[in-house]
Specification:
Penicillin amidase (Acylase) alpha subunit, N-terminal domain, Penicillin G acylase, beta-roll domain, alpha+beta, 29 strands, 18 helices, Penicillin Amidohydrolase, domain 1
């Protein structure tokens, strides 16, 4: 029996070695990048009384270095996730969900795009990214106990740029195409004016010769890189001085996740080279994406033009070649290793990544499908965002926007001269006119004339400057309601090939109504509009309510129905039916936003009633008991709904049945240019400046103000922040 014991011992040793190998292979397999070129950076970081960093440097690069240091001090936890995504290693941190992002990283060739395009950027833009990488590396070196993955640092500017290449297409919904294709499900796409003969319908991903649509499945690939795909949100308002009592106003009210890789981080930057800007960025960016400088400001909302085309490829019997213009071509093939953390080990999962002349290729049971999207293979947005940060006039600002380097998002603009503008910015594919093809369907992949190059001309996009109404807005709605009667654009003036959306949101209907009714849009009036919690009985709300009215119910379900029908169409925490309405609305909104089947009213009503009776013992608890803003030990009541101007869009359901908000009103910035005065602004975050540092006094210090609809001062000017400084220090690169 000795040999049996020895064999068992040997097996245990082998298993232990295997576990050790799986636990340690990934850092050695994924070696660190080359560090940025060695140079000295120095920045001053002054934090105001809310911990918001004001970062000063002699050069723009010095300031970008300071941005990385300040952000790392507040949220190095999230910054590392973003760096891991930018290097295809997020699965080693986040397991299967992270591996999905790593697969997308390889599929769209984010690293290859950065390697090709980053060296082409102007030297001063690249200097910004190298300095930012140097700041990340310095913080990681000084805080080794916080580093999640071995060999994640050092990083360089190209690594940071790869993160931009990964994220940019997901802001216009690339995940809503990749996910169904991976699963073999229908594509549900809704865009602008109908092209004759091509109605807006679910698009079946069909096998050759199969005319039946595949059943809609629940499987999807969800990539948390943009706004919540099911519940897009953001509001933006600009008011000219003639309508605002002499004051030019810009209100930025972006709706992003409250935590994570696309949560806003507030900062003010200033350099001796003329870069002076207050606003917010995402983790992994050396510059703000929205806000203001001394002269002008802008904010963004997500738009949804038809930016993506899908082609079904004709493969030969080997499955390795596809036909194009009568010739067989080899599919480009690359095998990648995805690290997937499972408990204490990291599994190496091999996946094949395919590409054709069209773009990335996904195979499923029904064939091979190629994807092509606006801005594919481009990275000039890194330069364009930097330049608009430093623009001093509308002409300078628009010159950068007209490059269409920033692939999508609406821009709402205002400046000290009183100019306001709305640009439906999008690098929409330049599809050939006169070519017979259903651009909203699955295109034949064997025709090269359907492989477009470049984008439409900037001049063809919807754009409004200084409307007669004196106001502009967007709430993720069609650009054809933006400025009021007499100032709006006509849909028929724009090519249907652009796929410009015609949809409205409740926020849009409410904003349009309230802005149109106001004789003057002063601060008090705009505050009432911004924090409005009402729904209009239109669109999906009307359809849901009509379904409740028609519902035949008995017993407890009838009681729930009658309560829901007593709802006053507000989410203001004042009404017995607000809680049940809040639970009902979100799925109906999500179906409408995403062109999905309308939910069953009885089923959703029953689910809402069950939730309330299970966790609250009643159907009509105050909505403020249900909807909460939670961080650490702070637990506060919240108002607003999934599609109200005061937005509480999505939430997680806690063990106690409360809804802990995770997406909705996030960073709010209110900017004003008064006659003869310097620019001033106020802002708020839902939590604080240090969202992942529980020991920081700025972990939760803005929550009460956020709940109470209040804003704090932005200390844009140096003398103002010095008067409110809670901490002031100089940082410099380590020897």
């Amino acid at each position: 029996m000795i040999w049996v014991k020895r064999g068992a011992f040997a097996l245990v040793v082998v298993l232990l070695l295997a576990v050790a190998a799986l636990a340690t292979w990934e850092p050695f397999f994924a070696t660190a990048a080359n560090p940025p070129p060695l140079r000295t950076y120095t920045a001053e970081i002054i934090r105001d009384d809310f911990g918001v960093p004001h970062i000063y440097g002699a050069t723009d690069a010095d300031t970008a270095y300071g941005v990385a240091i300040a952000h790392s001090e507040d949220d190095f936890f999230t910054l590392q996730d973003v760096v891991a995504m930018a290097r295809g290693r997020y699965g080693a941190i986040a397991g299967e969900e992270g591996a999905k992002i790593d697969f997308a990283y390889h599929l769209i060739d984010a690293r290859g795009t950065a390697e090709r395009e980053y060296p082409k950027l102007p030297a001063d833009t690249r200097a910004l990214f190298e300095a930012y990488a140097a700041g990340l590396n310095q913080y990681a070196q000084g805080h080794p106990g916080e580093v999640k993955l071995a060999n994640l640092f050092p990083v360089n500017g190209l690594d940071v740029a790869a993160g931009f290449a990964l994220r940019q297409p997901f802001f216009f919904g690339l995940d809503s195409v990749i996910g169904p294709l991976v699963a073999g499900d229908d594509l549900r796409r809704e865009h602008g004016p109908d092209i004759p003969g091509f109605p807006r319908e679910p698009l079946p991903v069909a096998a050759p010769g199969d005319t039946a649509a595949a059943p809609q499945q629940a499987r999807t690939l969800v990539l948390p890189l943009g706004e919540d795909a099911d519940h897009l949100g953001s509001n933006a308002f600009a008011v000219a001085p003639q309508k605002g009592g002499g004051i030019t106003t810009l209100i930025s009210n972006s709706h992003q996740p409250l935590r994570g890789g696309v949560a806003w981080y507030e900062l003010v930057v200033e350099s001796g080279q003329g870069w002076h800007f207050a606003g917010a960025n995402f983790p992994g960016s050396p510059f703000p994406f929205l806000g203001h400088n001394e002269h002008l400001g802008w904010t963004n909302t997500v738009n949804t033009p038809d930016m993506i085309d899908v082609y079904q490829l004709e493969l030969d019997d080997t499955g390795n070649r596809y036909k194009l213009d009568g010739q067989w071509r080899e599919l480009e093939s690359q095998w990648v290793t995805l690290p997937v953390k499972v408990g204490p080990v990291i599994l190496p999962i091999r996946r094949e990544v395919l590409r054709s002349a069209h773009g990335p290729v996904i195979k499923n049971a029904k064939g091979a499908f190629a994807i092509r999207y606006g801005g594919i293979g481009e990275l000039q947005q890194l330069d364009a965002y930097y330049r608009i940060n430093k623009a001093t006039s509308f002409a300078e600002w628009e010159a950068q926007l007209s490059r269409l380097a920033i692939p999508s998002t609406n821009f709402i603009y205002a400046d000290k001269a009183g100019t306001i503008a709305y640009v439906y910015n999008a690098a929409i594919p330049k599809r050939p006119e006169g070519v017979t093809a259903n651009w909203r369907g699955i295109l034949p992949g064997n025709r090269s004339d359907l492989i477009w190059r470049g984008s439409v001309d900037y001049e063809t996009l919807p754009r409004i400057v200084n409307p007669a109404s004196g106001w502009l807005y967007n709430s993720n709605n069609t650009p054809f309601t933006a400025a009021g009667a007499g100032s709006d654009l006509a849909p028929e003036a724009f090519s249907p090939l652009m796929g410009i959306e015609l949809k409205q949101t409740n926020r849009s209907w409410r904003a349009y109504t309230l802005l149109s009714q106001a004789s003057v849009l002063d601060r008090a009036t705009l505050e009432r509009i911004k924090y409005d919690t009402a729904y209009e009985r239109r669109g999906y709300i009307d359809r849901m309510f009509s379904g409740l009215e028609a519902l035949k119910a008995q017993g407890a379900l009838a009681e729930a129905r009658n309560l829901a029908l007593s709802w006053d169409f507000t989410a203001d925490n004042d009404g017995r039916a607000d809680a049940i309405a809040l639970l009902l609305i979100r799925d109906f909104m999500g179906a409408d936003y995403n062109n999905k089947p309308f939910p069953d009213v009885a089923e959703k009503l029953q689910a809402a009633a069950d939730h309330l009776t299970t966790h609250f013992g009643r159907l009509d608890p105050p909505m403020s008991d249900l909807l909460r803003l939670r961080q650490g030990d702070i637990d506060l009541p919240l108002d607003g709904g999934s599609d109200t101007l005061r937005a509480s869009t999505t939430w997680g359901v806690a063990d106690d049945g409360r809804l802990s908000i995770k997406h909705g009103d996030s960073f709010i910035m209110w900017i004003e240019w008064a006659p003869g005065q310097k620019v001033s602004s106020r802002s708020i975050q839902p939590f604080g400046a240090a969202t992942t540092r529980p020991a920081s006094p700025h972990y939760t210090d803005q929550m009460r103000l956020f709940i109470d609809h209040k804003l704090k001062p932005v200390h844009f000017w140096r003398e103002d922040v010095l008067a409110k400084a809670s901490n002031r220090r100089t940082v410099t690169t380590m020897p």
